[in-house]
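Weekly modeling sync, notes
Attendees: AB, CL, MP (scribe)

Item 1: holo prediction request
CL wants a bound-state model with nicotinamide-adenine-dinucleotide before deciding which constructs to order. AB pointed out that an apo prediction alone won't tell us much about the pocket. Agreed to run with the ligand included and paste results into these notes for async review.

Input as submitted:
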Amino acid sequence: MRILLTTTSFQDTPGRHHDLLKNSGFEVVTARGPLHETQMLELIRKDGDAGGFDGLLNGDDAITAKVIDVALPRLKVIAKYGIGLDSIDVKYATSRKLPVLFTPGVNHTTVAEHTFGLMIAAAKHFWPHLRSVKGGGWKRITGSELAGKTIAVLGVGRIGKEVVKRAIAFDMTPIGYDCHWDAAFAAQQHGLKHAATIDDAIENADFVSLHMSLADDDRGMVNKAFIDKLKKGAVIINTARGGLVNEADVAEACRSGRLGGYAADVLDVEPQKVPHVFQDIDNIIVTPHVGSRTFESVERQALRAVTNIVEFLKGGKDFIQANPF
Ligand SMILES: NC(=O)c1ccc[n+]([C@@H]2O[C@H](COP(=O)([O-])OP(=O)(O)OC[C@H]3O[C@@H](n4cnc5c(N)ncnc54)[C@H](O)[C@@H]3O)[C@@H](O)[C@H]2O)c1
C-alpha cells in the first residue's frame, strides 16, 4: 500500500504516531501541506502508471472532484487528519463511493484553550504591548476584563462546549446558538443561555466566538450586516474557519472602531497571501492555524488518523467515517 502524508504538524511533532505508521508497512510519500489542487494533481500523476496512492493522510489540502477523479481507481480512502472537512469535496467522494475518515474528539480542549488565549490577548492588547516592549518601549493601553461579560458561542459542538465551560470559569455569561442544540449539555452548564437565533445570541454580546463548521451557506456570514447587529466595540474570536468571515468587512470595522477587535487562528486563504488586509491593523491578531497544534493534541489526532487509515486499508473495523454509505 502506498499513502501520501501531507500534514506538517503530524510530520514535525514527535510521538507514538510515527511508530504506528512505520509499523504498518505502508510505503509513505511525504509532502508539506496544505497543498492546492495543482500540487495534489502533480503528486498523484508523478510516477504515471507506477504511481498514485491507495490512501491520503491529509490536512487542509484541496481534495477536489478533479483530484479524486485523477486519484481513482487506485485511491481507496481519504483519511483527514482533523475534523474540518471543508477542503475535501465530501459530496463528490460519496458519489464515487470513496470513504472519508476523520478524527473527531481529539483536539477540543486544545482549541478551547487557544480561544481563551486569543480572547485575553485581544482584550488586553497583547500585540501592541509586546511589540512596544520588544522595541525598547513601554507603551500602555487600558484593557478589559472578561469577568462579567457576555460571550456568544456560535456552534456549541465539541469545541464550543469546552469554550462554554471555560467561559463560566471566567465568570462570563455564555449564550449559545447551535442548529442542533444539545439540551443535555446545556442542563449541566449552570448559566448557559440558549439563543433561538444567531441574532438573539449576538445582540448583547461583548465577545462573539465562532465554533461552527464551514458550509457553503455560512461562507462570509460575519459581514457588515452581522457586525452592524453587534454592540459597538464587541470583539470577535475565530478559531473555526476563515471562510466564515468576510475579511474586508471585519478589517474595515476594526479600523473604524466599530469592532473592538478580531482575534483569529484561521484565514480564508492559508497560508496567508501578502499583502493581507489585516496586516497593519493593530486590533486584529492572527495565529497561523496552530489552535490544535500542541504535543498532546497532535499525538491524539495523529494516532486516530493513522489508526483510521491502517485499519481501513487492512480490512479492520476501528475507523471513523464521516460519510457513511
Ligand atoms: N483552529 C484549529 O486548529 C481547529 C481545530 C479543530 C477544529 N477547528 C474548527 O472548529 C470548528 C468546530 O469544530 P468542532 O470540533 O467543535 O466541530 P463539531 O462538529 O463538534 O461542532 C460544530 C457545531 O457547529 C454546529 N453548526 C454547524 N453549522 C451551524 C450553523 N450554521 N449555525 C449554528 N451551528 C452550526 C453543529 O451543529 C455542531 O454542533 C470547525 O469549524 C472546525 O473546522 C479548528
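Recorded for review: The chain has two domains: 2-106+294-313, 108-286.
Action items: CL to compare against the apo run; MP to circulate these notes.
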